Amino acid sequence: MTKRTAAKYKIDRRMGENIWGRPKSPLNRREYGPGQHGQRRKGKLSDFGIQLRAKQKLKGYYGDLTEKQFRRIYADAERVKGDTGENLIGLLERRLDAVVYRAKFVPTVFAARQFVNHGHVEVNGKKVNIPSYRVKEGDVISVRDKSKQLAIVLEAVQLPERDVPDYMEVDHAKLTATFVRAPSLADVPYPVVMEPNLVVEFYAKN
């Protein structure tokens, strides 16, 4: 299991944006960064700084992925025909933990990773406990029968703050989700602007 080295809300404050759109984000109270120097006036970012921030924001959104994990996904996106930035988004959204989060089976992407890790999820009827597992079009993702009454699941499906995107078909009564297709950037309901084109520029230069 990937170790999360930063508290999730510190990511919000470091980026200066409520990247998950959560009501509990400290940015709703304090817009400055974390730590004792957080209130210093920020200088203008260089092109490198802008590209780095775009990469850190995208990495952070998907549960603060490690650089090794993220770079591997980026390399796969480069190998596929088409726009690398769009491919990157499509591959990130095909991660099993991202699909569980999008289906609203759990409240946060961090909870989704733990939920998968603990063996609560099946893909096409078989238990899968690897958060980075890449789902395919037509795959059916479901909460295991013994896990359907967990409080975290019952609470998550009632959350009003997120809608299920149209590249997934979800039945909350049965707690199943079908991954219909890999989305483009415009399809993904990010609460903030994501700029995968800047991520592509970052890796092209570094």
Automatic annotation (TrEMBL):
GO BP term, example: ribosomal small subunit biogenesis
Record domain RNA-binding S4: where: 94-158
GO molecular function, one term: rRNA binding
SUPFAM superfamilies: Alpha-L RNA-binding motif
Keywords: Ribonucleoprotein, Ribosomal protein, RNA-binding, rRNA-binding
Family annotation (InterPro entries): Ribosomal_uS4 (IPR022801), Ribosomal_uS4_bac-type (IPR005709), Ribosomal_uS4_CS (IPR018079), Ribosomal_uS4_N (IPR001912), S4_RNA-bd (IPR002942), S4_RNA-bd_sf (IPR036986)
SMART domains: Ribosomal_S4, S4
GO cellular component terms, A-Z: small ribosomal subunit
UniProt domain Small ribosomal subunit protein uS4 N-terminal: residue ranges: 3-93
Stretches the record annotates as Disordered: 19-46
Function, in words: With S5 and S12 plays an important role in translational accuracy. One of the primary rRNA binding proteins, it binds directly to 16S rRNA where it nucleates assembly of the body of the 30S subunit.
Family annotation (PANTHER family): 30S 40S RIBOSOMAL PROTEIN, SMALL RIBOSOMAL SUBUNIT PROTEIN US4M
Assembly information from the UniProt record: Part of the 30S ribosomal subunit. Contacts protein S5. The interaction surface between S4 and S5 is involved in control of translational fidelity.
Family the entry assigns: Belongs to the universal ribosomal protein uS4 family.
Protein name: Small ribosomal subunit protein uS4
Organism, as annotated: Tritonibacter litoralis
Gene: rpsD
